[in-house]
Amino acid sequence: MLTRKTLTKEQVYQKLKHYCAYQDRSQGEAKTKAYLLGVKKPVVEELIAGLIKEGCLNEERFAKAFAGGKFRMKQWGRQKIRAELKQRQVSEYCIAVALSEIDFSNYKRTLQKLAVKRWNSIKGDGTNHFVKMTKTRDYLLLKGYEPGLIATEIRALAEKQKGAG
Question: Are 139 and 153 spatial neighbours (Cβ–Cβ below 8 Å)?
Fold first, then answer.
């Protein structure tokens, strides 16, 4: 049987510091990492407090970076970003701050671009106006966009198609 090498409190602190320096992390992720390193709960709380005090761990900074990155790179909507941040145990305040950082005009432009791309990609036998509406709506909901914004965008696409067709 393999015996696990136990780390001192200072060694774990340095590992956590490096873990947080490599990439912004949430407090939940840092705690999980500490538990994986074999640290008990009271010590973990103390280590996390030290990381926060030093500025290595900042949940607001993490939430802003996460939300901005997922919106820019994966074009996620606010609902999906909110759900993912909640799953990572980020506070409501930090989630609200992070989502407010997303520029609304850029958000609408991205939604329009995704809607047009999806709408135009739906082809084949049996494809009609309603099939396109449903598939486009489902895709945008899956991406995490708000139903009200999606409905407005789909109405605009349907009107454009009626005008052209």
Answer: no
- Contact 20/42 with Cβ under 8 angstroms? no
* 113's tokens: 């671009």
pTM exceeds cut of 0.70: yes
Cα distances (Å, whole numbers) of residue 44 to 48, 51, 57, 62 = 6, 11, 13, 19
Rounded distance between C-alpha atoms, residue 38 and residue 48, angstroms: 15
Question: Which one-letter DSSP state was computed for residue 108?
Answer: H
How crowded is the C-beta side of 38, counted as CA atoms within 13 Å?
A: 8
CA gap 84, 105 in Å, rounded: 23
Contact 124, 149 (CB under 8 A): no
Q: Where are the alpha helices (DSSP H) in 2-91?
A: 9-22, 27-36, 41-54, 59-74, 78-87
Q: Which of 7, 89, 12, 95 is nearest to 46 (CA)?
A: 12
| pLDDT tens by residue, 78-106 | 999 999 999 999 999 999 999 999 999 99
Rg (CA), the chain: 22
